[in-house]
Amino acid sequence: MRSSLKDQLVQAILSRRSVRRFTSLEVPSEVIDRVLVSATWAPSAHNAQPWRFVIIQKGETRVKLVEEMAKVFQRDLVADGLSVGRARRMGSLAKERILSLPVLLLVCLTMKGMRSYKDERRREAEYLMAAQSVSAAIENLLLVACLEGLGTCWMCTPLFCRDTVKTVLNLPEDFDPQAFVAMGYPDEKPAPPRRKPLEQVVLRR
Asked: What is the pTM of this model?
């Protein structure tokens, strides 16, 4: 790897942050496409490329989506013991954040191209392989977005209301919602989060 390319990659890995505040600048479609193309070059099990991406534009569809998701979110919070009023306030804040995002991507998983087994053990393993592949694609997306000068935030909210997301967006049957990626030009510079030292995360045998 050429030194300059290596340096850029390492810099992107070390400088990338989860950004939650963005400027009002629009992200050009060609930049979004470059970021998405990078995601499709991630490694995947069987080279099945089990990722699918949905660009959720600002407008009625996004409004409907956040309203329906907020209902599920608030219901879960009340079930956890929060007051109805506090649950509504938290739901409203979540709605405002998502509605204001310059770019909102939904990342889905599909089992098309993955292998089929009769037993539950291998079916579960195959699904996890697809999920790991999708995660690799998201990481590619985040790093290249960083190199493009964009901020991003990986949010797994759709996992808690898959059916709602599928219904509102009228997704194909095989699309399994996994995550949102918020993207735009950052309006904040978050401090680096603490990282555990290697001795806490590496086991040598």
From this structure: 0.94
